[in-house]
């Protein structure tokens, strides 16, 4: 039973990858509706010359908020892993 | 454990230049390639250069590690508060409430090439500065934590 399921899963994945790589041309279409809109209106609406910054900090502000939060969390993780360890017993780590 | 005199002199010379360059990248984020993330990383390399050239003790005489942690938290808070003010003004979250109003960072920009005016783009420069402060604190704290393990780094 498990063998059959695994064969089916592998077949579905292989067919999906083959279809997705052969069905569409790479990099086509070169520009869609959304990027044309941003190029045409981004400078006037936000006032910034740099369209990339306009998108990152204005149109897609939520994404940047997530990036900043990820960085904050990464610092928490690094601080946890690289915390100062003195010559004490294992239970008596000094958290700072 | 200091590095040689050549490295220390080079660090003294390069540190202000790195700070100025990083601040330029942050503040001109809405005009030229770059922005808060890139400029903050450049500023953090300046602090790490000091860390590598001098000892941890010398660096602690000049800066507190806690001030970098505070910079990180304050940058993220300023970023969120700038986005929340738009909510308070009756617009949507992350609405650019300062653009094209004529006030601070509010100069209207016509479509097309221009020399690049600093007083434009509304909340984008403020968010760039907030993210720059956050990234410089975060990168410095991460690298200080990691470099503390080198020999003589933490005694």
Could you describe the 3D structure shown?
- The complex is a heterodimer of chains A (96) and B (155).
- With 96 residues, chain A is mainly alpha-helical.
- Chain A is built from 4 helices and no strands.
- Chain A has a domain of 36 residues.
- Chain A starts with a helix and ends in a 15-residue tail after the last helix.
- Chain B is mainly alpha-helical and 155 residues long.
- Chain B has one domain.
- Chain B has 5 helices and no strands.
- The interface between A and B is large, with 30 and 49 residues.
Helical stretch tally of chain A: 4
Number of strands of chain B: 0
| SSE string of chain B | HHHHH
> Helix fraction of chain A?
55-70%
The secondary structure category of chain A is mainly alpha
Distance between the termini of chain A: 53 Å
The major sheet of chain B is characterized as: none
Indicate the overall shape of chain A: flat
Q: Which chain pair shows the most residues in contact?
A: A-B, 30 and 49 residues
In short:
The complex is a heterodimer of chains A (about 100) and B (about 160). By secondary structure, chain A is mainly α.
List keywords for this structure.
heterodimer; A: 96 residues; mainly alpha; 4 helices; 69% helix; 0% strand; flat; B: 155 residues; 5 helices
Furnish the topology, listing elements before pairings.
The complex is a heterodimer of chains A (96) and B (155).
Chain A: H1 2-23, H2 33-46, H3 51-59, H4 61-81
Helix pairs in contact in A: 2-3, 3-4
Chain B: H1 5-27, H2 36-53, H3 56-62, H4 65-88, H5 123-147
Helix pairs in contact in B: 1-2, 2-5, 4-5
């Amino acid at each position: 039973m498990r063998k059959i399921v695994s064969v089916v899963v592998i077949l579905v994945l292989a067919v999906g990858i083959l279809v997705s790589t052969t069905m569409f041309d790479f990099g086509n279409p070169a520009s869609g509706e959304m990027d044309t809109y941003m190029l045409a209106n981004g400078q006037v609406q936000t006032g910034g010359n740099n369209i990339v910054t306009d998108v990152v900090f204005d149109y897609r502000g939520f994404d940047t908020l997530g990036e900043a939060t990820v960085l904050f969390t990464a610092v928490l993780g690094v601080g946890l892993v690289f915390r100062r360890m003195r010559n004490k017993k294992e239970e008596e780590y000094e958290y700072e | 454990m200091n590095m040689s005199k050549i490295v220390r002199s080079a660090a003294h010379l390069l540190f202000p230049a790195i700070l100025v360059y990083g601040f330029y990248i942050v503040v001109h984020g809405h005009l030229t390639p770059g922005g808060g993330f890139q400029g903050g990383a450049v500023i953090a390399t300046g602090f790490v250069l000091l860390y590598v050239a001098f000892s941890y003790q010398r660096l602690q005489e000049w800066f507190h590690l806690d001030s970098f942690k505070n910079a990180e938290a304050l940058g993220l808070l300023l970023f969120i508060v700038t986005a929340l003010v738009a909510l308070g003004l009756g617009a949507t979250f992350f609405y650019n409430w300062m653009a094209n109003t004529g006030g601070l960072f509010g100069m209207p920009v016509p479509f097309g090439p221009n020399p690049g005016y600093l007083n434009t783009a509304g909340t984008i420069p403020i968010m760039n500065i907030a993210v720059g402060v956050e990234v410089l604190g975060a990168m410095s704290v991460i690298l200080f934590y990691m470099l503390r393990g080198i020999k003589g780094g933490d005694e």
